[in-house]
Request: fold
Amino acid sequence: MTPELYNFILKTADDCFILGHRNSEWTGFGPFMEEDIAFASMAQDKIGHAWLLYKMLDENPTAAETLAFKRAEKDFKCCHFVEQPIGEYDFSLMRHFLFDHADQLRYEMLMNSSFEPLAHFAKKFKGELKYHTMHADTFILQLGNGNEESKARMQSALNFCLPLALGIFEAYEGEQEIIAQNIFAGEKVLQAKWLEKISPIIKDAGLQMPDMASLQAVNGGRHGFHSDYLQPLLKEMREVVDAFPDAKEW
Amino acid sequence: MQSFDPRVNRIKPIEEKTEMNIGEAWEPYEVFHQKKRGDHHIHVGSVHAPNAAQALLFAKEQYGRRQNCVNMWVVKTADVTQFQYDDADIFETAIDKEYREAYGFKVRDKINAYKKANP
Reply:
């Protein structure tokens, strides 16, 4: 596998893995039972996607575990958006909405990838991702058009999330080669599709899209520079693994 | 007592209490599940939701994950018209009409005998 392809798959997997872990933090604390189950199940889907992608990077049977639990923070390539703490439910829902639309579109584009294993997974993930965005859209529309408080909360969550969300589309090392080899059409193409997809939903939810040109993307993640939130997350996630570093079996 | 779950320790106690009355803005929906195309939708349970679209989402999580599923219906419980249990006597008959009951058909015995002989 070429280094640029490795890098491309790794950052895609890291986003899913870290967001999956973050969203799983709601398990048992969701706003009500049915939603608790839904959100936990979608978090599990994300970790499943990451697991399959990690396994693609290395044929060693424990590769996914090694990449997930034994890697230094600087070797992660996730964006800052997914690292943010879950905050309140308005933030978590808005992140779920913005990220999952990008994720769904990314895999839609990957269905035509020249790298066959990615095209294969893209088709496999299709149903789950469709459900994730269906879930997100339903909530955004419901709360955006809800009462004064829910509208205000969703609007401020949107304003807070957008610069972070733009970090999803940060250029990474080897992107030009990835585009040239027809593996993926590129982050800028994805960003344009994403904006086109989310804008009408945000409008229908009665929310205002800020002037995108005035926003400064929160970048760095794709080059290993992370927010202060990633290291504590990794430490907490690895508590058991670190307690038994020589364990042979889990 | 300190919890071992880091998530628990992150939760700050809520000072203000929100009053919510039973049924306020939320309604029960009955869930029907279809195993494969052409099959009947079968009632599998109920969910609470603020509207039908969300009821469908919740139904999918509660009832769509443990078995094959191609389609689901949700119906507001309030929209289901039903008899009263007090009127259950309307289903009784004055004289024996077993011949009308599906399990009264002679063929049922034959089927059962066949099933028993060919497990």
